[in-house]
Design goal:
Layout lengths: L27 H25 L15 H33 L4 H10 L16 E2 L32 H26 L5 H25 L3 E2 L8 E2 L7 E2 H20 L20 H32 L11 H4 L23
Antiparallel strand pairs: 1-2, 3-4
Helix pairs in contact: 1-7, 2-3, 2-4, 3-4, 3-7, 4-5, 4-6, 5-6, 6-7
Length: about 350
């Protein structure tokens, strides 16, 4: 909006010059917050369509059974991870809010970062590359019939373990970004001359290693598997516990790394890159806090979409054949590719569309 230039009239009748108002520039906070609102609306629609639709049902395990130690381990995991998430909510959200009467940056980062669980299954969007163990508590997945444009058939049979991935994105993913920020801060204190690119490199490499280590441990315990990897870029290639190095880099180093980078680099007012310009908006304190939250939300989810989801679609369509030996509770009847809809995805196998 432009304003008409004016000014106070002087005693001689002439009008004193004033500064033209012109177009107001709010900075990136407006665009990031708009993206955040759009992302949240899309995700709410998708989750709602899944929960209210016919595919919100547990995926059958099939005839194969897990070992007794796995059953005990899964039960413990589905209790410990939610408890850890509650502890982080208390530490990052509740305590600062009670102390200051408002949500802190850490609280905004925790809440926005935890919702990136939405992208957890996105590598299956084009072709099945991710498997979960259906002996974990699940209600299928928010794919076919819920996520608009979802391509991979039988995606709804992915048994998304809601007590592991839901709270796990706060307890096991956002926490990685937080740890990376702590390490980067210590490095900055130890070597004050360290530059921005060095800090970014430290965060990306550090989270790549941390996430890869954590994921390989979960894979070896049978929680999930990555059958659709490119073997030249995969550790333990050809085994049911293989781990694509691209996962650790794209998910950990880049997507979670972007979250950590946003969290670390703040100005003297404590604002992240996504919140710049908030002081030039006409909202009150409550409105500005909401705008800040949606800006952070928009930045984080855009990072996951651009840095994680998009490259995984190329990787999915170039994956090697599945390793042999996955039991029924891992495959979960998701291998419906090929001309007869009975094959696992791989080279030369036609990909059916829903």
């Amino acid at each position: 909006m432009s304003a008409i230039a004016g000014g106070k009239e002087t005693r001689s009748g002439a009008r004193a010059p004033t500064k033209a108002v012109g177009y107001r520039t709010y900075g990136p906070v407006v665009w990031w917050s708009i993206l955040g609102v759009v992302m949240l609306a899309f995700q709410t629609y998708t989750f709602g369509s899944w929960i209210l639709g016919p595919n919100f049902v547990p995926t059958p395990t099939g005839p194969d059974q897990i070992a007794d130690w796995q059953r005990i381990y899964f039960n413990i995991l589905q209790v410990v991870v939610p408890l850890l998430a509650l502890a982080f909510v208390w530490y990052w959200v509740v305590m600062p809010w009670r102390r200051d009467g408002k949500i802190s940056l850490d609280g905004m980062m925790a809440l926005a970062g935890s919702t990136t669980v939405f992208w957890d299954l996105c590598m299956n969007y084009t072709s099945t590359c991710l498997l979960y163990n259906s002996h974990l508590i699940n209600f299928g997945a928010w794919t076919n019939g819920a996520w608009p444009g979802w391509t991979s058939p039988a995606g709804n049979l992915l048994p998304e373990p809601i007590l592991v991935t839901g709270p796990g994105y706060l307890a096991l993913v956002v926490s990685q970004a937080y740890v990376a920020c702590l390490v980067a801060r210590k490095a900055k204190e130890r070597w004050p001359e360290i530059g921005v690119l060095s800090i970014i490199g430290l965060i990306v490499i550090g989270i790549t290693i941390l996430d890869s280590t954590l994921e390989m441990a979960l894979i070896r315990s049978g929680v999930y598997a990555y059958p659709g990897g490119i073997r030249e870029l995969t550790l333990f290639a050809g085994e049911t516990y293989q781990f694509p190095l691209t996962e650790g880099f794209l998910f950990g180093g880049l997507a979670v790394g972007a979250m950590a980078i946003l969290w670390f680099f703040t100005d003297d007012k404590g604002l992240t890159l996504a919140e710049r310009g908030i002081e030039r908006t006409s909202f009150g304190q409550t409105g500005q806090r909401w705008m800040r939250f949606f800006a952070i939300y928009g930045f984080i989810h855009t990072a996951f979409f651009v840095l994680y989801m998009i490259p995984n679609q190329w990787l999915a369509t170039h994956a090697d054949p599945f390793p042999e030996g996955y039991p029924s509770y891992m495959i979960n009847n998701m291998c419906v590719a090929g001309d007869h809809h009975d094959q696992c995805p791989g080279p030369g196998v036609a990909m059916p569309r829903p």
